[in-house]
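[Automated response] Your request has been received and processed.

Submitted sequence:
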Amino acid sequence: MAKKNTSSPAAANARETAVAYLHSMLMQRRFEEKSAEAYAIGKIGGFCHLYIGQEAVSTGTMAALRPDDYVITAYRDHGLALARGMTANEIMAELFGRATGCSGGKGGSMHLFDSKLNFLGGHGIVGGHIPIATGVAFAISYRGGDQVCVCFFGEAAVNIGAFHEALNMASLWNLPVVFIIENNRYGMGTAISRSTAQQDVVKRAESYAMIGTSVDGQDVFAVRKEMDEAIERARKEQRPTLVEVRTTRFMGHSMSDAASGTYRSKEELDQSMQRDPIVLLKTKMLSDGMITEADYNKMDDEAKAAAQAAWDFADASPEPSPEELFTHVLSDESTVGAANHAELAGVGR
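Generated structure:
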């Protein structure tokens, strides 16, 4: 590893942080490239929405959270799950529909979930999870906790009714939630200019007396700084924030959609890829003497090996048994239901 500019404790800490970010982003990139390969040969069925190009958003945000904070997102969830701490093996197994997957192989790409990490999904309905995030934040406030809930969604979701209802209640009740718009400018194949009257989407915050901010989503350090402020505001002041992260997806909307398709030109895509978040971070680290080219190649090789290992693990895992069709359909009334009923009974006294 490089020795330049790492002699002071501050420089060493800065290098350690940057290396951690680069490792997280490379792991997401190589995992999803392997996912695309598996999808192409039929190892993965159903839908598969890749996060490639947006890795700085997940990495910068997760670095700002505590382990007991809550995360909820939509269907483009692989990178966020990896950055939150889920293993490549359990995620790939879920994509392969195997029993060792995080949701027992029954959820697939859009329904990654890990209660131990407070990662609450993985939701397939556009914007349907935004009111759930507001509900989670209400529960935190009701119980007197100091956790925060962060909620990711695309810019097209700001046009649905649930978005407005959820933000209104979050602001009215002063709830500890950060709403994060991952604005990649396309809702499926529709450009934002063709779907949204107010294209400066962060202005939606003004309607709900909520602070709204925008940040460059290709710069992991800028994302971390913006999220630090928004999360601190939620944790200490119980005030929600709407953060617009301006980013780009390098792949199509899903694996059924070509990267450029007919709705954006190859030239536009090529221009966007000039600001690859991994390349930007790598270039900065090389320039600052934090790593060498050999260091980078070693990290990249490790990420590729981990992605291949996840493929091998998933491919060797068993499929769920037929009996699993009848499990996890309803909550277990003897445990969760009873506890909730007891709490509600106490409220009424």
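Summary generated for your ticket: Residues 344-349 have pLDDT under 50 and may be disordered. The chain is about 45% helix and 10% strand.
If you did not submit this request, please reply to this message.
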